[in-house]
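Handout, page 2. Input:
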Amino acid sequence: MTTPTSKTPAAFYYFLAQSFRYPEQTWLREPYFDLLDSIVTNLDLNNDAPLLRQSFCANQEGLELLQIEYTRLFINSSPAVIAPPYSSVYLDQEGNLYGPSAVWVHKFYHLHGFELSGEGDIPDHLVLELDFLALLIEEGQDDVAEQFLSEHFRKWFPRFKERVLNGSTNKFNSTLLTLVDFFTREEL
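Output:
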């Protein structure tokens, strides 16, 4: 996990990317919930962080609930995955993985000097897009980050968010979606 050590915009994007990875006890611990609580409190957002900490931190049953929910929402559910975290599902007419929008994202990464490190990485996964935004901001490429947000991210994220909110059974995901909304909105 890339842990934000300061309150820089890049650190927030790294934090958000981590938050949408598969829940594991290695990172879903007190420091994570301390930071979540701090961010939500400082932004004066609806603060469910204390409840989330109590429900999911250092609690094997809570961790398992998050893992089940993550799998059900983002990986595998019957009859279909509820909210695939890939932009191509929401932007491309076919609604399949690795469609034209994923190719566009991959080219955009490449155009701005970034390559995927994982062999099987699908470029338009939410986590990779948030990591990419963090890298751009970290390198002072705020204009490129804004271009990516306006030309791509903001076009698909609202539909993804709606599916998650309609299909989720806990406050963890709604809190994270509120943060992504906050850090990707146009006014910032």
